[in-house]
Description:
Elements: H1 17-64
Amino acid sequence: MVPLSDHIPVPSVPEDPYVADLLKVADDNIARLREEARVSREEASGLEGKVSNLQRQVRRSFLFG
């Protein structure tokens, strides 16, 4: 993935306080969404393991049940 800063020049310190506030809100939202995505990936991984285990149990019950 190419960083956004490679395409659009972004000033290091915004001169307008309104823009600075918008950037802060955007950065906070990005951090929150990244954390939510990380948690979702971990939950999905755990659920995939449970589904796999249940599928094995079902196959065994048909074979040996």
